[in-house]
Amino acid sequence: MNFRGSSIKPVDLDLSKIPKHIAIIMDGNGRWAKKRLLNRIKGHEKGAETVKTVVRVCQEIGIAYLTLFAFSTENWQRPKNEVMALMSLLKKFIVEEQQSLMDKDILLNAIGELEKLPQDVLEVLMKTINRTQNNQGMQINLALSYGGRDEIVQMVRQIAGKVHSGAMKPESISMEVVSDHLYTQGIPDPDLLIRTSGEIRISNFLLWQIAYSEICVTETLWPDFGEDEFLAIIKNYQARERRFGKV
Ligand code: IPE
Ligand code: IPE
Ligand code: MG
């Protein structure tokens, strides 16, 4: 699908059908840079600008939760210089956006194996998360060193530990109990999952949570993704009939 070139305005949306939670696989930074004979890092820098646009639009139309796949458990296997550049970009982004998150009443949250992040990144991240924790507006979940399978493994470990200690009975393990032991506990499942840059795959993102999410893949590379296309995707989502297995 490609929604570029449409000129949907926020007023064209059905306000009674605004998705509560949008999750995005922000892909294509490297290809964006390659097309311009630039270093991949330049693509990541440009991609960070797209994040700001998407956050602004989400706030304008009243999205409650925005989950952004920023770095996967598999991304640690990229060349060391790219990993380091991504980490310093992440740190810079958090530091620079901290005040803006406060001004916009946005709560920042992070999901993933955060302890794997470099100490200095983890520090600014936790500081910002703590500073924004009482904000009442939109919630942003940054998926960092995040993997859906890793999340499931840590959930199983936690629940197995409780069963082992006698704190929980096997027969009381329900879907709610599973959800409550994921990194996303307390967050409703995504209504809409968007992936940019055309790859039709999940790449280990939110495996449990996207069971019934509407999926939209656009060819647009993440640094080229913008307001008009984002609104067109939400408009397309609103036209879909979500049946959840019923008739
Ligand atoms: C997404 O862009 C950003 C991260 C995965 C960190 P990529 O870096 O994967 O860009 P492509 O897929 O190589 O174009
Ligand atoms: C998924 O993109 C991870 C993020 C967007 C952070 P990748 O570029 O890592 O995924 P693959 O390699 O195309 O599956
Ligand atoms: Mg990629």
Bound molecules: 3-methylbut-3-enyl trihydrogen diphosphate, magnesium ion
Determine the strand fraction and express it as a percent band. Answer: 5-15%
Could you name the ranges where pLDDT drops below 50 across 5 or more consecutive residues?
none
The average pLDDT is: 97
Please give the radius of gyration in angstroms. 18 Å
| Number of domains as seen in the coordinates | 1
Distance between the termini: 26 Å
Q: Residue share in helices?
A: 40-55%
Short description:
The protein is 42% helix and 14% strand.
Description:
With 247 residues, the chain is α/β, with parallel strands linked by helices. It has a single domain, classed as Decaprenyl diphosphate synthase-like (Undecaprenyl pyrophosphate synthetase). Helix content is 42%, strand content 14%. It is built from seven helices and six strands, in the order E-H-H-E-H-E-H-E-H-H-E-E-H. The two termini are 26 Å apart. The mean pLDDT is 97. One 3-methylbut-3-enyl trihydrogen diphosphate (IPE) binds next to strand 2. One 3-methylbut-3-enyl trihydrogen diphosphate binds next to strand 2.
Describe the structure using short key phrases.
single chain, 247 residues, alpha/beta, Undecaprenyl pyrophosphate synthetase, 6-stranded parallel sheet, 6 strands, 42% helix, binds 3-methylbut-3-enyl trihydrogen diphosphate
